Amino acid sequence: ADASAYALTARGLTKQFGGFHAVKNVDLSIRRGSIHALIGPNGAGKTTCFNLLTKTLTPTAGTITFEGRDITGMRAADVARLGLVRSFQISATFPHLTALENVRVALQSAYGKAFHFWRSLSAVEPLNARAEELLDRVGLAQSRNLTAAELSYGKKRALEIATTLALDPQIMLLDEPTAGMGHEDIEPITELIREAAKGRTVLIVEHNLSVVSTLCDRITVLQHGQLLTEGSYAEVSSNPDVITAYMGG
Ligand code: ADP
Question: Is the ipTM of this complex over 0.85?
């Protein structure tokens, strides 16, 4: 396929810690508009790969291209401004702000330069309205005045998606959005991601294969830091190498 079909690509992506290859020579192509999953057994290199793509880690070798631009040497904040955004870790950042305030902070940072908070009080109203709209969209309208710390686990994840959507990313990267969730939270968050993915590209690291099967168009499987295979869920789940890898091979 031609390169312009892809929002995000990596070539020869490699990360060494000391002499150890956590990620080795991985090629990735994330099709624009797709929901793409990165899966693999524990220690496969998913988190490292995710951190490389979101610029949290610097690769030892390889290149990352976002919308045709080489972003390998760029900082996370700069690629975020270009439209590549990873989910916020609300619980780790603003636990004592309310849900509404958390989304407003994200909106303010997104509109940073254009938005003169102190100069124009009239600008606060549209900002609040937009924040309310985002909370409503993720099912948190009733919880807007609760602090992030007071929210249930599932609602915290929903708030993280709302703050990520506040930045209106072209590609949204989610690290294990259903981790630690009970069944009752998994279905709504899956629906939420599907809804949030409309008009954008999503890359998720996900352990729950049933979530992957219902949500994701393409799946990349890593093992021992290397690319094992890539394809649809039907393709990868019937691949004997994948089955062996998941059985601890
Ligand atoms: P996954 O997310 O698939 O479980 P990780 O990317 O977390 O895998 O880890 C891949 C491998 O790299 C593991 O063997 C892990 O121990 C190792 N690793 C990850 N981060 C570091 C680090 N900062 N220093 C040393 N080794 C690391």
Answer: yes
